[in-house]
Each structure stands twice: as C-alpha cells, then as structure tokens.
Amino acid sequence: MIEQIPTRWHPRLAPQLTRNISIPAHWAPKNSLSRHLLQLSPLANVQSSWESYYQPSSSTPDNPESDDQQDLDDEDEELESWFSESNAPSKILSYLTDSSKIPLSSDSTTVLDIGTGNGSMLFQLVSEGGFNTGKMVGIDYSMNSVTLARRLASSKGMDGMKFDVCDVFAAQPSSGWAWKPHEGFDLILDKGTFDAMSLSEETYIDEDGTEKRICERYPEIVVGLVKKGGWVMVTSCNWTEDEVVRWFTVGTGGQLEVWGKVEYPKFIFGGVEGQEVAGVCFRRKDGASSGEEG
Who has the most CB within 10 Å: 44, 66, 224, 238? Predict the structure, then answer.
C-alpha cells in the first residue's frame, strides 16, 4: 500500500528537525526523499556519540546501582533497534529464514554483524531463527557497545557468540582479524552502519590522489569480508533502494549483485515513491542466479 505523505516533514522523524548536519551538496543523495532522510538521521558517525549512547545506565551519577539483571533488561529494551518502528528486525529475520528467498543453513552459516550495537539482531537470529550461536560475530568500534553486547549474550546463555571492538577502516593486523574466517563470512549484516558512515564528513585520499568520503571505501571493505557466493544484507533509512543498489554494485566494481529485496510499506514524498526503510540483499558474484523479493 502506498501512503501519500505531505511535502512537509515526515511525521515519524519530525522530532529530529532540530539536528543540523551539514553535508556538502555534491556529496548528498540526488533524490529529495533521501536528502530529507539523511538530514534527519538520528545519530551522526561520531565515535564519542556512540560511546555515550551505549554508556551503561548503572554507571551514571544520577542512577544508583541496582539489580544487575534489571539493568540488563532495561538496556535490552531501550537500545533494541533504530528500525524497530518499521519492524525491520522481524522482516530481516523472515527473509533470512525463508529458503525460497535465500538458501542459508541455519546451523552452519557464519554471520558478521557490522556495527552490532547491543547485538540484538544476532540474538534474534539465534533465538527465533535457529542460527548457531558459535557462528555469530558482532563488531563495533564502540567499546561500550561491545561490552553491553557481551553482557547481554551472557545473560541470554549465548556465551559462544563473539563480540569484538573493531574499526573496519583501520589497517588489519598482519595475521588478519582473529574473528574473520579465512574465506570470509557466509552472511554480512549492515543495519544502519552505512547510514551512519554516510553522515560523516571525514575524507581520505584515494590511490589516484582523489579526495573521497570515508563511506565510499565501505562497500569494498565489505566485499573483503564476505566469501565468494556469500550474501550482504544492507538496511538503510538514509538512502533510497536504488541508491543502496548503486553504492554496493557500482561501488564495488560489480563484485556484488542484487540477490533480493526486503519489502517495506511505501509512501510518496514530494511526488517520489519510496520506502521509509530500504532493505537490499546482495550476493558476491560466483555465477549463481538471483533470488526473489520478499
């Protein structure tokens, strides 16, 4: 169903109007809908912001120490997902557990969640999707995030799950990252991490001397983490579906191809049809045919 949205601000995101994130015009999305969403995205890609966001509530002066389990329950509820209002976690789970859409083996599939936050998506894959706890890896550059995810995993009896502090833009150790399988992961999840990177004005100088945004490196970094024939699931509230596709196909020199798409409610903004959330599943090429939308 397509919902007509007035040309004024999108109602769900209206409280974010006070944020003023400056994005150079030539770097911004061309589509008016995605420009709007980019301006209103809830958190910029500033590490201190994430550390503050994941700061344990029990460690603040205004919140005296309370029962540990209650703290865990409160944090799990409070920080569950950016996308919970769009039911994205459940939609992703439904897609990944439907063999007619993507042929994954829940017991043997290795999964990397980049920008894992509190690990909620991995917990859901295990508890509701039957995935193997020991095959789950979550990374985040926020120490507080990883600390929280580890605590929650322990409280849920999922100690076999691995969470590590990692900045994927940093140089790899000479021996490689300890959490990465030699051939790469079967499945990589990105649920807003690329969105946050897209908000950063940080740049780098490419090999040809061109100044580029840090986010332009990300799709190729992802390719280096997924095995040939493996999948990458990208969920975005900043970019339109078409823009996500261009970033991860053209941006990887064609190494990733569209495998399928997760459908979300559609609406019209400024005469342009779009979705509040874009979900695209890519596959690293190995000659296999594509799956279906779902």
Answer: 238
